[in-house]
Amino acid sequence: MEIEKKTKGYSIWSNYCAAFSWIRKKEGMVYFILMGVTIAAAVMEPFLSMALPGAVVYLLGSGWEPGTIFAALAGYVIVLQGLRIAKDYFGSVWAKKNFMFRIGLGSQLFSAAMDADYQDFESETGQKKLLGAKMNLYFGNRKGIEAFLNNLQAFLINLLGLLLYAVMLGRQNVWMLLLMFALTGISAGLRFLNRKRTDAYDAGYERVWRDYQYLGKEILIGANGKDIRLYHMWKWFSGEFDKLKKEFVHWGSKWWWCANGIPAIMEKCIALVRDVLVYGYLIYQMMQGGMELSAFLLYIGIVSGFGRWMLPLLDKLTELLENNRHMGCYRDFLDFAGKKHQGNEPVAEPGQTHEIRLDHVSFRYEGNQEDTIHDVSLTIVPGEKIALVGMNGAGKSTLIKLICGLYRPGSGRIYLDGKDVSTLSAREYQKEFSVVFQDVFAFSFPLEDNVSCKDSTSLDSGRLKECLQKADLWERVQIMEKKGATYINKDMDASGVSLSGGELQKLMLARALYKDAPVVILDEPTAALDPIAESNLYEKYYEMTQNKTSIFISHRLSSTKFCDRILFLEGGRIAEEGTHDELLAKQGAYAAMFRTQAQYYVSDAGRQDAVLE
User: What gap in Å lies between CA 397 and CA 408, rounded to an integer?
Assistant: First the structure.
C-alpha cells in the first residue's frame, strides 16, 4: 500500500509552525535556546578550527611578548574547545529531545485514530492516510518529524557557515567567490542527475532484492520443507537463486557506480579545477606581496571548507523537502481523523432498553458499484430478541455495524428512541451496545483486563467472576497460574496463555456481559463451538439477555428458535421475517436453508437440527 505523494496545503513553513507549536507546549522555550546554541557552536567551531593555523602564524609574527602570545593562543584554544563541548553536549541534548518528542507524539496519533469515524478509519483511503502518518513517527530518525527537525538544524548550520565563508571570500575577491559558487553548483547538479539515475536503478534493484528475500524466506520455513523434499524442488529453487544472483550483480553494479563511483570521480575532477584556479590565485597574490602568510592560510582553509558547507546544504534541502512530505501526510491524517459526521447530543436514557428503528437505510462500501444494504426498514422494540440469518455476503455483519454506529447510512436514517442517531455523540451512543464479532481476538494483556477493558485498579472482582461463570470460562481461569491476572498470549509476558478459538469467543462474551449494555449483539457467537457446547451456550444466552434488547447472527438456523423474530437477509434486503415456525410454514428461502442444514446433524434423541458445516 503506497502513501499519497500529494500534500496540498502543507508548506514547509506551515509544517514547521505546527511542529514547533507542539514542541513549545511540551518543552517550552528551552528547546529553542538549545537549538540556537547548538547552531551557533556548530558554525563557529569549524571556522575557528580552520583559522587556527593562520592565527598562530599571525601571533608569532606580531612581535608581542611570548607570554602575551601564549595567553592569546591559550584563550583561542579554550574558546575553541568550549565551542566543541557546547556543540556536542547541547547538540546531543537537543537531539534527545527530538527523539523523545517523536516517540511521545504517538499519543497524538493514537488519540486521532480513536477519535476518527470508524467507517472513515477502516476505509482504504483512511488506511492509506494512516500509513502516511505512521511513516512520520515510526520509521526511525531518518524519516518523518524527527528527521524534519534535524534537517532544519543541519540546513541552518550549513547555510550560516556558507554565508560566513562567502563573506570572507567576497572580501578578498568577488570573482573567486563566484567561481566557487559555480564549481560547487556544477557538483551539486551532477549529484542531482546521478540521484535521478540512481532512483531509476532502485526499482530494478529492489525488485530483485524482494524476490531474493522471498525465496530465502520460503526455503527456510519448516512447514515448506516437506513439499520441497517430497517434490524434489531444490533444483528449481537453486536455479531461481542463480538467476536472481546474476540480476542482483547487474543492478547492484549499476547502482553502485551511479551512487558512488561516478559522483566521486566527477567531484575529484571539479576539485582539481578548483584547486588549480583558486590556490593558484592565492599563491600568486602572496608572491606579489598582496597577502600575508596568515591570510593565505586562512583563505586556503575557507576555500577547502566552502564545498563542505554548500554540498551538505543542498543535500539537507533535499531531505527536508522529502520529510516535509511525511509531515504533510501526518497532518493530513490528523485533519482527516478530525472530521465529525455525528452530533454531540447525549443519549436521552442511557443504560435503559431502547427502540431502534431503521428507515429506508442503504449502505455502500467505498469503491463498490452496488449497495451492500438496500433500502432496509426495521423496528426493534425494547427487550426484543432478533436473529439475523442468511447466506454469506447477505449483509448481516454490515447491518449490525450500521445499527451499533460503526457505519453511517449512505441514505435513510437510524433512530434511537425516536432520536436521529446522527445527532447523537458517537461515543455516548456506542456505550449502549455490547457487541461480540465473529473475528474475535484478545489483546496481550491480563485476562481480567481483557474482560473489564479497564486497568486492575478499577476492576470489580465480583462482577468479573459472575461474567466468567456465565460465559462458561470460570473453571478454565481457575487452573491458570495467575488466575485472572494471567496474560493472554506471550507478546507482553513469556508466561502468557494462548486460548483456543472457542475460549476466545467465551472471553469476548464475558466482556460483553461485563459492560452490561442494554443492547447485546452477538455475531456468530458459537462459530468455534461444537453443537453440544453451542446448545448449552444458547440456553445461557437466553438467560443472560433477559430485560435486554438482543440481536445475533447465526448460520445454524436451529439456534434461532428461541428468538422473538427472525430476519432472513438476502442480497442486502430483508427477504423474510417472522418466528421460526412461521418461516418454516411459508416454505420460502428460510425453510429451504433449514432443510438443507438439517440433513447434516441428527441429535442422540433422533431430532434433526440444522447445523452449517
Answer: 14
- Please calculate the CA angle 602-439-450 and round it to the nearest 5 degrees: 110
Phi, psi of 565, deg, nearest 5:
-150, 145
Can you read off the three cell numbers belonging to residue 302?
A: 575557507
Radius of gyration over every alpha carbon of the chain, rounded to an integer in angstroms = 36
Residues ≥6 apart with Cβ < 8 Å to 241: 212, 215
- According to DSSP, the β-strands at 573-578 and 549-553 are unpaired
Neighbours of 468 (CB within 10 A): 25
Cell of 289: 606581496
* Beta-carbon contacts of residue 382 (< 8 Å; ≥ 6 apart): 352, 353, 354, 355, 549
Taking the C-alpha atoms of residue 99 and residue 32, their distance in angstroms, rounded to an integer, is 15
Distances (CA, A) of 237 to 208, 211, 216, 222, 250: 15, 12, 9, 15, 20
| b/e per residue 236-275 (b: at least 16 CB within 10 A) | eeeeeeeebeebbeebeebbebbbeebbeebbeebeeebe
At 517, the amino acid letter reads: A
Name the pLDDT band for 432 (thresholds 50, 70, 90): very high
Residues ≥6 apart with Cβ < 8 Å to 133: 109, 112, 329, 330, 332, 333, 334
Give which of 538, 534, 528, 506 is closest to 601, Cα–Cα.
Answer: 534
Amino acid (one-letter) located at 183: L
Q: Which residues make Cβ contacts (< 8 Å) with residue 426, sequence separation at least 6?
A: 117, 342, 405
Q: What is the pLDDT of residue 476?
A: 93
SS3 content of the chain, % helix, strand, coil (to 5): 65, 10, 25
Report the candidate in 10, 97, 3, 26 with the shortest Cα–Cα distance to residue 321: 10
Q: How confident is the model at residue 295 (pLDDT cuts 50, 70, 90)?
A: confident
Q: Which amino acid is at 132?
A: G
Q: Mean of the per-residue pLDDT values for the chain?
A: 84
AA identity, residue 423: T
Mean pLDDT of 203-223: 76
User: Left if phi > 0, otherwise alpha if psi is -120 to 50, otherwise beta: which for 437?
Assistant: beta
Confidence tier at 9 by pLDDT (50, 70, 90): low
Long-range contacts of 2-8 (CB under 8 A, 24+ apart): 2/128, 3/128, 3/129, 3/131, 3/132, 3/135, 3/329, 4/128, 4/129, 4/132, 4/329, 4/332, 5/325, 7/324, 7/325, 7/328, 7/329, 7/331, 7/332
Q: At what angle do helices 66-104 and 12-27 cross, to 10 degrees?
A: 90
When pLDDT is cut at 50, 70 and 90, the band that residue 202 belongs to is: low
Match 601564549 to its residue by C-alpha cell: 70
Dihedral of the alpha carbons of 103, 109, 110, 111, in degrees to the nearest 10:
120
What is the DSSP pairing of strand 433-436 with strand 519-523? Answer: parallel
Q: Which three three-digit cell numbers place residue 388?
A: 439475523
The conformational region for residue 601 under phi > 0 = left, psi -120 to 50 = alpha, else beta, is beta
Output 356 or 533, whichever has higher pLDDT. Answer: 356
Q: Which three cell numbers stand for residue 565?
A: 423474530
Amino acid in the structure at residue 429: Y
- Residue 279: is its pLDDT beyond 80? no
228, 234 Cβ separation under 8 angstroms: yes
